[in-house]
Amino acid sequence: MSEEQEIEDKQESEMGFMDHFTELRKRLVWSVIGLVIASGIAAFFYQDLVNSFLLVPAKSVGMELQNLKPFGQVFLTFKIVLYAGVTISLPFILYQIWCFIRPGLYDHERSWAKWIVLFTFICFICGVLFSYYVMIPQMLSFSVDFGTKDIKNVIDINEYWSFIMMLLLTAGIFFEMPVVAYILSRAGLVTPNFLRKYRRHSIVVILIIAAIVTPTPDPFNQLVVALPIYILFEISILISAMALKQYIKSRDV
Questions:
Q1: Which ranges of 71-156 would DSSP assign to H, the alpha helix?
Q2: Which residue in 18, 89, 156, 169 has the fewest CB atoms around it within 10 Å?
Q3: Is-contact 192 241, C-beta < 8 A?
Q4: Half-sphere exposure of 231 (CA within 13 A, CB side)
């Protein structure tokens, strides 16, 4: 290769890098703008978010909440607005991620990768809803009724918020299992036979996770957490089989 050719290749590589960097900066700016707008909407409806979302699980079981820090409610307001803003703007942020990675994909990769962005959001929201309407009420009910009547349970609002967000995020992440199985299988890294082989091991891990996440010692509440995760695991096996067929077909082409 001549020296002139090496210089041209180096310039093309540098231009390609700068183009990618410019595109990344553009998508980040749009993502931040979307987050700011969504957070502004959340701030406008802050009272509704608190009364119609955050406090509903506590009120449903008769749990008393209090603030123990001088600026506790101030920081709580920022947390609620930020988390709500992220949730509202998540589809827009995922779209910006898709716009950034799309030019680097082949046509056959774009056909399935665009659906991953959509189903990532759908699965996460399903996990959040399951946690909010099933897991959290069961756990708070146990927390209120547990212990002696001589000790009054009055919970700090910031501790309550941390507990709620931990469960919502945990469930949302677990509900991404089918999406992860599809991506890994589509890339040829995981097979349905591999998942079936370690099914028993997975059941043990799921039961351990359910025991850790669930503060209740009774098996019913642990089953409420473990059963959906196991169902997601079985769905992941089916999705892995479908994705593997697509992977083999793409390799043959």
A1: 72-101, 107-130, 136-145
A2: 18
A3: yes
A4: 8
**Contact between 210 and 225 (Cβ < 8 Å):** yes
Residue with tokens 């096996």: 237
Q: Is the separation of the CB atoms in 152 and 210 below 8 Å?
A: no
C-alpha distances in Å from residue 168, one per residue of 54, 127, 234:
12, 7, 22
Q: Is the pLDDT of residue 133 over 70?
A: yes
- The answer to whether the CB of 105 falls within 8 A of the CB of 194 is no
Q: Does the reported pTM lie above 0.85?
A: no
Q: What is the pLDDT of residues 192-232, one digit of tens each?
A: 888 898 889 989 998 888 887 776 666 777 787 888 889 99
| C-alpha–C-alpha distance, residues 168 and 128, integer Å | 5
Beta-bridge partners for 154? 64
35 and 94 in contact (C-beta within 8 Å)? no
Count how many Cα atoms sit within 13 Å of the Cα of residue 64 in the half-sphere of its side chain.
Answer: 6
**Strands 64-66 and 154-156, how do they pair?**
parallel
Residue 71 φ/ψ, nearest 5 degrees: -115, 30
Q: Determine the Cα–Cα distance for residues 214 and 224; give it in Å rounded to an integer.
A: 9
CA 151 and chain centroid, separation: 36
Gap between the Cα atoms of 104 and 59, Å rounded: 50
Torsion angles phi and psi, residue 105, rounded to 5: -105, 150
For residues 34 and 88, the answer to whether their CB atoms sit within 8 Å is no
Helices 107-130 and 72-101: crossing angle in degrees, nearest 10, is 160
User: What is the token pair recorded at 86?
Assistant: 């992220």
